[in-house]
Fold this sequence. Notes:
Organism: Agrobacterium albertimagni AOL15
Helix content: 40-55%
Protein name: EAL domain-containing protein
Number of strands: 9
Distance between the termini: 82 Å
Number of helices: 11
Shape: globular
Strand content: 15-25%
Largest sheet: 9 strands, mixed
Domain EAL: 24-278
Transmembrane segments: 1-17
Bound molecules: ligand C2E, magnesium ion
Keywords: Membrane, Transmembrane, Transmembrane helix
Structural class: alpha/beta
Radius of gyration: 22 Å
Oligomer: single chain
Amino acid sequence: LNPTMAALIFCTAIYALQQRLSAPRGIARDLVAALRHGELSLAFQPQVDGMGEITGAEALLRWHHPAKGPIPPSIFIPAAEEVGLMPLVGSFVLEEALATLSRWQADPKLGRLTLSVNVSASQFNEADFETTLRDLLARHHIDATRLRLELTESVLIAGLEPVAEKMASLKRLGLTFSLDDFGTGFSSLAYLRRLPVSELKIDRSFVTAAAENDRDAALVRSIRAIATDLGLETVAEGVETQAQLAFLKSTGCRVFQGYLFGRPMPLADFELSVLAPKPKPMPPPERPTPRLA
Ligand code: C2E
Ligand code: MG
Ligand code: MG
Ligand code: MG
């Protein structure tokens, strides 16, 4: 290794590091502009029951950058989190979500739908989260029983006791809680017993693997068993195939979300699919029974 090469490698490494450290700042700067210029929106992904009827939706944040095109939440949410912008982004999400719920409530055909909204740990743990949410619910005249907040266990960074109390207090408003990405973290049964959640979302990674290997299938079965014991509903996320659906149904799971039923879509499209459902595909025609000679 000659000194020039060494220097070059060193500089490249420093540059790469700098880029990595400043990337979230760049994204964050753009994100503030995005909020101001209306580049953020919510997409709605259907949640269905065992009959394939839409019972509600999960609201998923989308960012369409004017120059860069769509930027996935897996990129901009961690960046927003890193620079402390997530509470601001999260209040945009809540505002949009509750405006949508209030529209639905005014329509007899949409009024029964539930809306699941992702709330990040930093947003939930803000001191004024509860007041902000109360005010929003009141302003939009929302029947809070239609609202479900999705939390991940990372929310527990603030401590089990204060989180459990805040959840209990919010629950008294009528809304419910769902534990997102269940099974991927350090899930402990002890905390599950203490938190007033009504639903577990079985993470997509298990759903994908369960139809293929026994260990993941066993994992899904034990999540179902825990849910049954604690009286919790389960939602399977990332259902893409009939085989996955069949397996999940065999475990007793009753609510499903995934590309098999619909991708996250703009509000108007989602409402259309509830109001004017496409005819379900006919089962394949029965083969004539071979006659014995
Ligand atoms: P999540 O809450 O676990 O959301 C489920 C993710 O799985 C979504 O990705 C959804 O589009 C995707 N998905 C659903 N069904 C399928 C499927 O059948 N196959 C595959 N391959 N993917 C499927 P998305 O929209 O990219 O969101 C990623 C994550 O970003 C979310 O995971 C959530 O943690 C976060 N996120 C999205 N919107 C918000 C938000 O408004 N607030 C907060 N705090 N986080 C959000
Ligand atoms: Mg979610
Ligand atoms: Mg999830
Ligand atoms: Mg997930």
